[in-house]
Amino acid sequence: MSIIESLNWRYATKKMNGNAVPQDKVDQIIEATRLAPTSSGLQPFRLIVITNQELKEKLVPASFNQAQIADSSHLLVFAAWDNYTEERINNVFANMHKERGTPPESTADYQKMLINSYVPRPEEVNFNHAARQAYIALGMALTEAAELKVDATPMEGFDADQFDEFLGLRAKGLKSVVILPLGYRDESGDWLAGLKKVRTPLSEFVIEFN
Amino acid sequence: MSIIESLNWRYATKKMNGNAVPQDKVDQIIEATRLAPTSSGLQPFRLIVITNQELKEKLVPASFNQAQIADSSHLLVFAAWDNYTEERINNVFANMHKERGTPPESTADYQKMLINSYVPRPEEVNFNHAARQAYIALGMALTEAAELKVDATPMEGFDADQFDEFLGLRAKGLKSVVILPLGYRDESGDWLAGLKKVRTPLSEFVIEFN
């Protein structure tokens, strides 16, 4: 199926049937997020994968009681770095040089430039920048899920502070930014399932300079 | 080709060969961005598509002289709403009701809730929220481009104010947030083309709660 067909098939599933998504499909969705490009390759976010039913149920009230949290098979939480630090930036480049067998000196100037421009900025500015990168990966996860006929509902409607507390994210220097329950639609119980997908008309959405 | 294979094939192409991407492929990449889900379905961004060579060349100095701007076939600019307004929110719902044939009253409470919570927020908060939505679409555009074997380089390194001025975006209530030149790699001239793709190891990237 073409990606466009898959994206037309997908929708923000409101009611899931509780069936489990096979691990190989979840693995591919995770891998799509890991392969997502990010600014300077920093990958300033982590992916939390929750299958523990007790924990999912604990998170329902922290998600405005949206049922997909408990009915999903896997709950993905995209959690961004709370800040850019010299150590985090250096770690990314150290891993890159290890993988490529390249000399650390080859990126020393670039690393210094990144550190000098990012680290002094307010934490909020850096967190917002990191969060945006996580959204690129969210787009890729949604596309991969649709291609695999796995339902997924991107959600910003949750209490990030409570999630961070329940998941112990603060100690890891992470803050949750967006969540994505994975599962399978229960069409008979989903008010949104039968409704036409609506988007801004192409003529309004695109501005051309030819 | 599977999406994972396509995402492994793609990279942030540094040197493009100037060949034109066929219009039907560009159309599919645009459609992927238009189908991207966004918070409350607001689609708070527009896509600028630039093929005009003179304009692309004018934008090179506003992009730290990165050659892909001029060598790309199509330069996509993701431009987010500068703010959420009552009129913009109402327009989205009016279009939805027209397309679905549903009564405007059916979402009146939800629209009022959105307007009351979004419109009073600082413009910067709203712009940042809108920008994040554009990044979901960026992730989908990158995936679709890779699947179609079109090269694409997501770039934040450009002068957004100058772009907004040259493209007349301010008058449209838009601010450019990220750009994506599309084209074809010139492997012989691209220092990055032969280097191994490096990502955070899965064991560090994923945090599981089973």
UniProtKB/TrEMBL annotation, chains A, B:
Q: Name the source's superkingdom.
A: Bacteria
Q: Which family does it belong to?
A: Belongs to the nitroreductase family.
Q: What is this protein called?
A: NAD(P)H-dependent oxidoreductase
Q: Which InterPro entries match?
A: NfsB-like, Nitroreductase, Nitroreductase-like
Sorted keywords for this record are: Flavoprotein, FMN, NADP, Oxidoreductase
According to its UniProt entry, this protein's organism is Pedobacter cryotolerans
**Membrane-spanning parts:** none
GO molecular function annotation? oxidoreductase activity
List the cofactors: FMN
- Output the Gene3D superfamilies linked to this UniProt entry: NADH Oxidase (3.40.109.10)
Q: Which PANTHER family match?
A: NAD(P)H NITROREDUCTASE YDGI-RELATED, NITROREDUCTASE
Where the record annotates domain Nitroreductase, the positions are 8-184
The region annotated as signal peptide is: none
